[in-house]
Design brief:
The chain has 317 residues and is mainly alpha-helical. The protein has 13 helices and no strands.
């Protein structure tokens, strides 16, 4: 009997190691995804300074992403074939990401990029709420506390420097962007994509996103597609296509597959910190005490969701 029990013990040990390794991969990819996505302002704001409109910035961002991903998939000899069901889900992902990108980039016209990115960060709370309401994940008291802290943080951000109130339209655009992104993350986890490689999922999502942005450019004469006017503009366009798009979404897809949507969303804590650091250090945006308190409240709220349960006070469990 001893060899039998030794075999079971070794199997359990191997499973534990594999589970832990998978968790580490998911956490690292989640962090990398957040940092990469937080560099959006670093590419978008210089392109706005070059005179490009929102639809042009986004269209060429995702065009570059599709070219990069398509080339990589071709070199690695991936099959581009998907079935009808998979195509519908991938199209939905593209529409969701297009909606999130349009509303997020439009918000840069109404508020500092660092503040916009911080408001966007309520999406982890939205992910937790969707998973609880639609997929019956337990909605603990700690989640309600997290929601309250996040909303309090947004209220702190709503008053800008020198008593100036932030644009209501800008705040609404950020909330909409956050909602689109939260649904995107949930769909990645819950939809049955038949084991499609993460690179292929990201490729098709970006392809449909690009097509949505092309259609969006026809909704107004002010949104017509224009080529990047200078080599500097092309550099930032390529940056947007690679770092906050291909790398961020690829890392995010891997993280969701390893650790699930809610923990992946929590790793997004580094997004607003990255964006605020870029806005303050590179673009000279103001960093006030009120902004700092708002950031702390939002980050505290979302970090509570992922803390080990044994660290909570008993009344919050």
């Amino acid at each position: 009997m001893q060899p039998f029990f030794q075999e079971i013990s070794m199997k359990s040990l191997t499973d534990n190691i594999n589970t832990r390794r998978s968790g580490i991969v998911g956490i690292v990819c989640g962090i990398l995804s957040a940092v990469c996505y937080g560099t959006n302002p670093l590419g978008a704001l210089p392109l706005y300074q070059e005179g490009e409109n929102t639809s042009s910035v986004l269209f060429f961002r995702f065009l570059m992403a599709v070219i990069l991903l398509g080339s990589l998939l071709a070199v690695r000899r991936f099959s581009f074939v998907v079935n009808r069901h998979q195509l519908r889900v991938l199209a939905l992902l593209g529409v969701l990401f297009a909606g999130s990108s349009i509303t997020y980039y439009q918000s840069f016209h109404f508020m500092d990029a660092g503040i916009a990115s911080t408001i966007l960060f309520v999406y982890p709370v939205m992910v937790a709420a969707i998973m609880a309401l639609c997929f019956h994940e337990r909605l603990a008291r700690i989640t309600l506390v997290a929601v309250a802290l996040a909303m309090a943080g947004i209220a702190m951000l709503y008053q800008g420097p020198a008593g100036a109130t932030l644009s209501t339209l800008g705040v609404i655009l950020c909330i909409l962007s956050s909602a689109f992104y939260a649904v995107y993350i949930v769909v990645i986890k819950q939809a049955d994509l038949g084991g499609l490689p993460s690179l292929l999922i990201t490729f098709y999502a970006m392809l449909f996103c690009m097509l949505c942005l092309l259609a969006y450019s026809f909704t107004s004469p002010d949104l017509h597609i224009m080529l990047p006017p200078t080599p500097r503009a092309w550099f930032y366009t390529c940056w947007l296509g690679l770092v906050p798009t291909v790398l961020s979404l690829e890392f995010m897809t891997i993280a969701v597959q390893h650790i699930g949507p809610t923990p992946t969303a929590i790793m997004g804590a580094l997004e607003p910190l990255t964006a605020v650091a870029i806005g303050v250090m590179i673009f000279g945006e103001a960093f006030t005490l009120r902004l700092a308190v708002g950031i702390v409240l939002i980050l505290t709220g979302v970090m509570l969701i992922v803390m080990p349960r044994n660290l909570y006070p008993h009344w919050l469990r």
